Amino acid sequence: MSEVIRARRLTGERALFMSRGVEVYDTIFDDGESPLKESRDVSLHNCMFKWKYPLWYCRGVRVFDCQWFEMARAGVWYTQDMEVNRAVIEAPKNFRRCKSLTLRDVDMPNAAETLWSCDDVTLENVSAKGDYFAMNTENITAKNLRLVGNYSFDGGKNVVVENSRLLSKDAFWNSENVLVRDSFISGEYLGWNSRNLTFENCTVESLQGMCYIENLTMRNCKLLNTTLAFEYSSVEADIVGGIDSVINPTSGTIRADYIGELIIEKDKVDPGKTKIVLRDKGA
User: Fold this and answer.
1) Mean pLDDT over residues 253-271, rounded?
2) In the predicted model, what is the mean pLDDT of residues 165-174?
3) How do strand 48-49 and strand 28-29 relate by DSSP bridges?
């Protein structure tokens, strides 16, 4: 039978160290590091974390209606098989080197340097604000993600983002195998140095966006106020409406109603390798 803990205030370092099969309700973890370090098969309900490193090296954690306060920083590192449901996480630098992680209905107002180097991640209805979100994380699926923060998904691999809104400069840099679908993205220098980056049914606003990309695909996308796009990128783009300016794509096909300014410098790229198709020749 599981041990049940209810309505306590636990203090001191490693308050529930190496717990096994414990159920914790309405409890505050305060004034002591690493309260649940090395625990297994733990469920937490309506608890509050007020101090550092609460869930390191854990396995099989289920969290419901809990809160991480600002000092519960670096809260979950090196943990596997974890679900977080309906939480507010105020602390930064959370979720590092975790595996098999699911976040549902989670708000992270201070998500700086969060979700680094994780594997097998599912985000559903997550709101986050902070720079360097999801750096070097692999095999991640995000649905209804609302993100405000620069340098997101840097170095990510096997990423799917759907029905989301990202206000993020330098998003998806150095990434590989990324699909963004039915989403809005605003931010300078989108996607530089990436491979196999695909946007479907997206609206993008970006200065010098989608440059230095190997195998960029854009299907049924809008480019609003997007200038100096596609520099040194191999691109297959079907754009709804126009593009303010395009500079030196290396190869592929670009379809749009019009291009405000097309810059092809023959000393830098081979013009014959890129096909430009304009649907509105009079624009």
Assistant:
1) 96
2) 98
3) parallel
Q: Is 2 exposed, middle or buried (0-12, 13-18, 19+ CB in 10 A)?
A: exposed
For residue 33, give the DSSP letter. Answer: S
AA letter at 11: T
Instruction: Tell me the domain boundaries of the chain.
Output: 17-278
- Mean per-residue pLDDT, 123-144: 98
What's the average model confidence in pLDDT over 143-162? 98
Pairwise CA distance, residues 243 & 240, whole Å: 9
Q: Which amino acid is at 149?
A: G
Q: How far apart are CA 139 and CA 152, in angstroms?
A: 15
Q: Please compute the mean of the pLDDT values over residues 72-84 and round it to a whole number.
A: 97
For the chain, the residue count is 283
Q: Which amino acid is at 86?
A: R
26-to-35, 47, 63, 231 alpha-carbon distances in Å: 15, 5, 12, 55
12-46 pLDDT per residue, tens? 999 999 999 999 999 999 999 999 999 999 999 99
Q: Using CA atoms, how far apart are residues 234 and 230, in angstroms rounded to an integer?
A: 8
* Whether the Cβ atoms of residue 257 and residue 283 lie closer than 8 Å to each other: yes
Helix H or strand E encompassing 139: strand 138-148
Expressed in percent and rounded to 5, the helix, strand and coil fractions of the chain are: 0, 50, 45
